Amino acid sequence: MGLGQDVIVELEAIVGSDHVRTAKGDLEPYARDATPLFRGVPDAVVWPRTADEVAAVLRLATRRGIPVVPRGAGSNLSAGTLADRGGIVLVLTRMTSILEVDADELLARVEAGVTTAALAEAAAAKGLLYAPDPGSRTVSTVGGNVATCAGGLRGLKYGVTRNYVLGATAVLPTGEIIRTGGRLWKDVAGYDLTRLLTGSEGTLGVLTELTVALLPMPATTNTGVAYFPSLADAGRAVTAVIADGIVPATLEFLDAKCIGAVEDYAHLGLRRDAGALLLFGDDGGADAVERSLTRIGELCTRHRAMEVTLAEDVARSEALLAARRCSLPALSRLGTLTILEDATVPRPRLAEMVGRIDEIAERYDVSIATFGHAGDGNLHPTCVVDRHDEAAADRAHKAFGDIFATAIDMEGTITGEHGVGAAKLPYLQARLGADQMALLRRIKAAFDPAGILNPGKLGS
Amino acid sequence: MGLGQDVIVELEAIVGSDHVRTAKGDLEPYARDATPLFRGVPDAVVWPRTADEVAAVLRLATRRGIPVVPRGAGSNLSAGTLADRGGIVLVLTRMTSILEVDADELLARVEAGVTTAALAEAAAAKGLLYAPDPGSRTVSTVGGNVATCAGGLRGLKYGVTRNYVLGATAVLPTGEIIRTGGRLWKDVAGYDLTRLLTGSEGTLGVLTELTVALLPMPATTNTGVAYFPSLADAGRAVTAVIADGIVPATLEFLDAKCIGAVEDYAHLGLRRDAGALLLFGDDGGADAVERSLTRIGELCTRHRAMEVTLAEDVARSEALLAARRCSLPALSRLGTLTILEDATVPRPRLAEMVGRIDEIAERYDVSIATFGHAGDGNLHPTCVVDRHDEAAADRAHKAFGDIFATAIDMEGTITGEHGVGAAKLPYLQARLGADQMALLRRIKAAFDPAGILNPGKLGS
């Protein structure tokens, strides 16, 4: 077990001895990511500074057959950065340069370890918007966001991370450094490797630099909230909004259990008698935003909303968004083990899906609250149990198996934005079928003949 | 040479004898696509009706090592559907069902042979917009547009075809039928095969059905035109527009040679004394569009525009767009051989690139006029020569070689939207490098172990 001393010496020669750690206490923080219950202790943690250093590490690993798990902030929820076969965790958090933010070209170029929030702030300082806004954005890295094709609250109007990646520098497992795409909105020279790397979860290459598209910052943003007797009513209101020709920037929901948990936690003054809360927001010119939100409010009222409120100022707008953003911490307080999931269904079937989730939870005698993105059908059913109650954890596990199967039955998917990782791999074939699984394995082998890069994840 | 009679019999058994043609006169129309100078006669033309028939043809082809070239309308400009190694041209134009247009879900599902215009019309009938609008859209198919990741006039604001493909049914060369993606805006279960197939130019699989995203139809659209003393002035105006936070739907340019050719051809009343024409358009709410176009007009005037006119009605707006859309036919009249190219550079370097193109044209003593997409730096330098003047055609060929090299030097690419095909393959390594070329070949082999699907194109 473990890496030979010769390997450690070689790693130290590549990145410097300060940037290789093998002591038990240094490895422990890298034995987990943000996924509960999953754990895998690496043999070494290595912090490279450049793509050349990454290439040298990967060449060594391919030559010696050593697993390498690339990692940004480790904030993923799919056990995607778990060294469950030992080997090296390659942490990219020293690569934090924002290389450029170009307002003329509407793009930024950053090293992979820059946090998404830092990129967004650098863009905002030049009056530009980096649109992807995953919940983890204050800690998660751009490299990690691209590797998982992170989503967020603005998916319907703005699309997800893949829509914003213009180019990447990636190191292949065999050590070649490739540059895909670039500073161009249109480029069809070759297979779309930029998009293939996006969402490949560190199994095809290590991303070291990204070029991303920015947008002019919308002049104004505003938010409103509507309470409904039931999620089915909220679902009908969402359908009516889309049918009215409105694609708002934000369209989020909380079910009744989430509303209660958030109110207990944050005391925002939410209505506890509602069956569902719909949070809606839009951005753009001030008059367009006001018109859009007013119209959404009218449509909510027409579809049985108990109450509709538009935020009268930015502070109140932020407070409303906080209700959605704190759903997870609010629910997490209810137990010692929180399992947050990520099933997705076609938008019109959202309320139906939440109904099915509630039935499944009841059947398995676990408590599952659901919040998520009503605009794109991306649900986050969340189960909270006592960490020491193994029977309950087991029932939760089985309940989620049923939830994924139900999502697939409804033409949905097992993960909308969190990724497959080690956690969802057992469910992937049910979604993709055997032929597509075999194809993923052949693609993986085309990039990683020795199978050293994030083994046991996508492509395995 | 040719296919054995046993193969023909088997093909007839799969698709019916009416849908297999091998007579010389029947093959000739499929020996060319829209690319001048390129030609390759197939041994058979086959028109399948279903994915199952496509699968049976491909299984046969893989078993017997027969090249298969998938083809929609054959309107591509990169010799991408050329049977230059003989074999079967597989024409998908019998697969023309629009399976659904769903206004609640903002999506359509179509067979691959539906024309892009037919899809756009079916969407418009339900108040929805299919955003990609390549110049070929009245004849080209959705399958072909996805296979080439077609662009168009709305690339900067709306993105290209890849941004609108939600899911695909594809037949692998070995006969498996896979379904990627689906009715979802967020789905990260597996590698992004949907995007990998998009732009793969029929070398990885045969697309038989596509699910595409639609948008609410914008309430209004309007267009304006500005004349400038030089393209450099027009380029500075474009930069000023973007810097002002405006990302208009359309931002097209014609150089002086194009203006003259279009005016000779269509008598639209264009100003012949201008060095460049900038066509700008936007869509959305009426007040927002008016504000946007008025502001663009002001910025053009501030950057030395000789004249700025906003279209006063829809008919005039259409007439202005026609000036851009008829650039190619107008130029084609000037000779008997038209070579339309597709180099792309970062947007701020557009005028510089056109200057370089003019220098190159002069050096090789050929006439090259340039029009294109100022919003996304996608240029269409167009050379017109006499078909019988082989020396001129040869000089044109060399000039384009220099143009591609120049585009790459300027961090651009050899093709923004037309594709690589057989025509650009000789230039691809200069853009991608040897390591990435080798990777493309390994990916190709992962899909197509026998190398039967569109051989000699991408991935070769």
TrEMBL record, chains A, B:
It holds the Pfam family FAD-oxidase_C. Its cofactor is FAD. GO terms for molecular function: FAD binding; oxidoreductase activity. Keywords: FAD, Flavoprotein, Oxidoreductase. Residues 38-217 form the FAD-binding PCMH-type domain. PROSITE patterns: FAD_PCMH. InterPro entries: FAD-bd_oxidored_4_C, FAD-bd_PCMH, FAD-bd_PCMH-like_sf, FAD-bd_PCMH_sub2, FAD-linked_Oxase-like_C, FAD-linked_OxidoTrans_Type4, Oxid_FAD_bind_N, Vanillyl_alc_oxidase_C-sub2. Belongs to the FAD-binding oxidoreductase/transferase type 4 family. This is FAD-binding protein. It comes from Pseudonocardia petroleophila.
